């Protein structure tokens, strides 16, 4: 039986755009879109960047597919440090996704090249959201270069939204004088939804549970080489106590290429604590700034003010006695009705549950909060929100979820036994 393969044939450079020419065996076609080849664009002319560095974003996108499917990847050259870190990452990923151990994946490299380059500054992935601002404020004395990537949460064709984001950076005095770099990639578009089936216990999606940490950080490799970054920060999504399988975690700290390391930052905070941290800095700096937390982009503005992410951020700011409208929102007392509707009608995953648990722990009878119009009425709404969450808490997780989780644990035990005794 012919081995499943993915092979990188060539890396084409068109000014600031890197286009990857690759092929895959017929049994893997189900996972990829025929007319969509992976590409990445940068803010500089990339022809002088070594191919062993340019290959890093491509390999980061395909290596996890190899681990989960068991296929072989063939590549001509790659950075030596990145190649070495992949072995560590694979073992670490397998601790959560035991199926990787049972798959006969392989990486064939013709040349691993030790890249060295001068480094004299640091950078961070910067979305403008709560996580990113927490990392920025923690390290503001470092004068970090900021890297914003289009294609992760902002779709590639949304020029209006990207212009809005650029303008918000330019208008923010805290960012004055800091270099801002923009990357764009179709790393969420070149593959199909069939990748979701590679995760046995998939309670979110491939991007969130597997792909985004290694892909976002690896996409910065050509930037790091060109601009001389000794380290790139990626802000944590979860705190160290939250027991969820996530595509970006402390495992990011293993990622390395050339003279550049990656730091997974802010994991000591949960999300509400990050709100407290940012609010404290706002008070100390005596200035506010917009938070871009929204993943919905079919509207004008940074945040819709109605989706689950926006509503959690809004209530968190209110509970810290801050006006959400000072942080990029446009809401009034009616926002409580949207929150109540969301808690009443929406199903909760582990991520949403964990975030709301943090929020609810701050709601007390004697709480101080930001008042839009009527303190008594708005306090009643807040206490009602708490009671609604307590009903969710009493029945979370669902019986169906518990059964799936138990099946996954039993399957993992069986796979570990199989790996040790049969394979």
Poorly predicted segments: none
Radius of gyration: 23 Å
Helical/strand content category: alpha/beta
**What can be said about the biggest beta sheet?**
11 strands, mixed
Q: How far is the N terminus from the C terminus?
A: 18 Å
- Count of helices? 13
Gross geometry: globular
Spatially, the strands of the biggest sheet line up as 5-4-1-2-3-8-7-6-9-11-10
Report mean pLDDT, rounded to a whole number.
94
Strand tally, please? 11
Order of helices and strands: EEEHEHHEEHEHEHHEEEHHHHHH
Labels describing this entry:
single chain; eleven-stranded mixed beta sheet; 11 strands; globular
Report on the architecture of this protein.
This protein is 41% helix and 16% strand. It is built from 13 helices and 11 strands. It has helices at 51-69, 80-96, 99-102, 130-138, 159-170, 206-218, 221-227, 271-285, 308-319, 335-345, 350-360, 375-394, 399-421; strands at residues 5-14, 17-24, 39-41, 72-79, 106-113, 121-125, 145-150, 180-185, 229-235, 256-257, 260-265. It has an 11-stranded mixed sheet. The protein is globular, with a radius of gyration of 23 Å. It starts with a strand and ends with a helix. The mean pLDDT is 94.
